[in-house]
Amino acid sequence: MTMERIYNFNPGPAALPLVVLEEIRENFLNFKGSGMSIAEISHRSQEFDDVINDAVARAKRLLNIGDNFQVLFIQGGASMQFCMIPMNFLSAGKSADYVDTGTWSTKAIKEAEIQGKSIDVVASSADKNYAYIPKNIPFNAAADFVHLTSNNTIKGTQWSEFPDTGSVPIICDMSSDILSRPLDAAKFGLIYAGAQKNAGPAGVCLVIVRNDMLDRVPDSVPTMLKYTTYSAKNSLYNTPPCFAVYTVQLVLKWLEETVGGLEKMALLNQKKAHLLYNLLDTGSFYRATVEPDSRSLMNVTFRLPSEDLEQLFIRQALENGLGGLKGHRSVGGCRASLYNAVSLDAVEVLTEFMATFEKKNG
Ligand SMILES: Cc1ncc(COP(=O)(O)O)c(C=O)c1O
């Protein structure tokens, strides 16, 4: 069995910090002297209580959120949040504002519409194939909430700053950029993120909810779809995805203790993305697909002169130990996902490979 690992640019599930994987391996057969693995112990045990409480405390410290927020762990992925949000927070006779910045926002909108809820799509970048983040949006001051997708994993755009929505809380899908930069929580009523990009493995969604939002949850919502079910029981109403929560805890520990917090993480993420965008902007062989002021630091999307060259590029990259560079099947092209666990070293190797590939094929 080879122990060789590749440079992993997958969009999600995605690269995890090597030290986290090593710690999992080291403790796997006997977690904290229990004689059992984390996948075998009770979610009601002291050991697991310590795991979930530590994960919550670390998430709060890293994201600088106070006791007016709760950190929850919910199954069903970010896609389940698309349906839970209108169910819990959009009251009869009121409406919510949604901004459509591509695939995932579009799906969030659809889930609200399926429920017959009143929503307004107050801005969309569909006119340019979602290659930018809309500006000067006419938000409704009476809306129940504004829904945004902070980073558009497929289209490669990201909000560099969040808009002013007055007293209307922003509900934000941060699946693909949570923990990649510091957070100013004041604008948000709820933040959610499927863990499988920047926070851990698939199977759990991190939800950060402001306490006053919980007062809105109607009794009529089914138990497992109510945020209050999770907030009342520290996400332990039923069996949580213990292994996924444990891995999230280790990723948060890595961010705090090894990386040194989100400001340092953000600087490193900027450096990685700039390295790659600089190469894309030099010459005409590679072409970034997104307008410069809307570019994602997490998912860098680009094209080559032809689809044949793109296929050759993806194949030869993999032969050189660089994986996960294929664009999403709905858009084609190439995409390098540069999440937290992707090192600067990995991006340097990628850009060197890209320069050589251009020399040979340009
Ligand atoms: C921004 C964003 N939102 C939502 C999702 C859907 O997440 P899940 O598969 O956890 O439902 C994804 C998945 O890639 C995503 O990138």
What would your notes on this structure say?
The protein is of the alpha/beta class and 362 residues long. It contains 10 helices and 14 strands. It has helices at 18-27, 46-63, 77-89, 103-114, 211-214, 227-232, 242-259, 262-281, 307-319, 344-361; strands spanning 7-8, 69-74, 96-100, 119-124, 146-149, 151-152, 157-158, 170-173, 188-194, 205-210, 287-288, 299-303, 322-323, 334-337. The strands form 4 sheets. The chain has a 7-stranded mixed beta sheet, sandwiched between helices. Helix 2 (46-63) crosses helix 7. The longest helix has 20 residues, at 262-281. The protein starts with 6 loop residues before the first strand and ends with a helix. The structure holds pyridoxal-5'-phosphate (PLP). The site of pyridoxal-5'-phosphate has 11 residues, from helix 3.
In brief:
The chain is 36% helix and 16% strand. It has helices at residues 18-27, 46-63, 77-89, 103-114, 211-214, 227-232, 242-259, 262-281, 307-319, 344-361; strands at residues 7-8, 69-74, 96-100, 119-124, 146-149, 151-152, 157-158, 170-173, 188-194, 205-210, 287-288, 299-303, 322-323, 334-337.
**Structural class computed from helices and strand pairing:** alpha/beta
**Largest sheet properties:** 7 strands, mixed
Name the beta content range. 15-25%
Number of helices: 10
Q: Segments where pLDDT lies below 50 for 5+ residues?
A: none
Shape: globular
The strands making up the biggest β-sheet line up spatially as: 2-10-9-8-5-3-4
Query: What small molecules are bound in this structure?
Result: pyridoxal-5'-phosphate
Mean pLDDT: 97
Helical fraction: 25-40%
User: Quick one: how many beta strands?
Assistant: 14
Rg over alpha carbons:
21 Å
Q: What's the order of the H and E elements?
A: EHHEHEHEEEEEEEHHHHEEHEEH
